[in-house]
């Protein structure tokens, strides 16, 4: 955001410099006395100073508004991200619990059938001994 404000301030400064230069040249080449020309230059300089001051206040107000909007957006984005993160954590926890239950039921099923299958060879081994 500061890069954009630097661009705007540069544009405003260039505009003001051009306006002052143009006014000075126009007044210097006008067919008037030196005192009258200086007086007009001073008036124009005061007018431009006033306009620049007004424009600065306006730009400051706009920048403040933009800052508030950006703050609101960032708060909203953070809230949405937090909600989505919470939902993701819940989904992962639920999926992990489901996988755990499947594994436990598979172990119980395999354990009962393998226990009986393992018991038979051991009985045969005992009979041979």
UniProtKB/TrEMBL annotation:
Q: Which residues form a coiled coil?
A: 42-69
- List the keywords (alphabetical): Coiled coil, Membrane, Transmembrane, Transmembrane helix
Top-level taxonomic group: Bacteria
Give any Pfam family that matches: YtxH
Q: Does the keyword Cytoplasm apply?
A: no
Could you confirm whether the keyword Transmembrane helix appears in this record? yes
Q: Where is this region: Disordered?
A: 106-129
InterPro entries attached here? Desiccation-related_membrane, YtxH
Transmembrane residue ranges: 6-30
What protein name applies here? Gas vesicle protein
